Amino acid sequence: MGKNGSGKSTFSKVLVGHPDYEVTGGSLLFKDKNLLDMEPETRSHVGIFMSFQTPVEIPGVSNFDFLLMAFNARRKNQGLPPVEPLEFYSFVTPKVASLNMNPKFLDRNVNEGFSGGEKKRNEILQLAVLQADLAILDEIDSGLDLDALQDVAKAVNRLLTPRNSVLMITHYQRLLDYINPSYVHIMENGRIVKTGDVSLAKLLEREGYRGIYGS
Q1: Is Nucleotide-binding found in the keyword set (predicted)?
Q2: pLDDT for the residue 214
């Protein structure tokens, strides 16, 4: 959490290797490997996923084909054989149902003509399919009505295991009513200035950032 412009989205984009950013020092260690030595697609293959605030549209590519290609790319990196479309359909349809999405959603082009809520659900569907070890969710609650927010939160909760992690960026306490965080970090000027439990977010909701660090 943090004010607009505090560096939250920048931090996330650097983690996944966004080309708009150049890292001039330091390292990013994930599973004992330096992410700075990897291209963005390689970072994805080793288990990092990011949900963007404004997902891009990909005309001419169906959701099903996109998910199948991404899923098989990760399996290849893990030394596993690719799955065939029919097998993958059996794998993906329960995940679609868990997000209260129409199965016909898979036939639509990626994010093309989607509402804001549909795009956010689609991002979580991608996360569910790729089974990432570290998921970075940048304002996944933005633009969601209450029903969609609950569906997305339930899906995220189902994906959490002792072997993976989720880093969420949000401005609002309401998301944390459904996803209980282990830690809440407050960022300011590109640095984490305060860390606590969910009570820190509740304090922020009541008193704003002045209640956090008096500014």
Answers
A1: yes
A2: 61
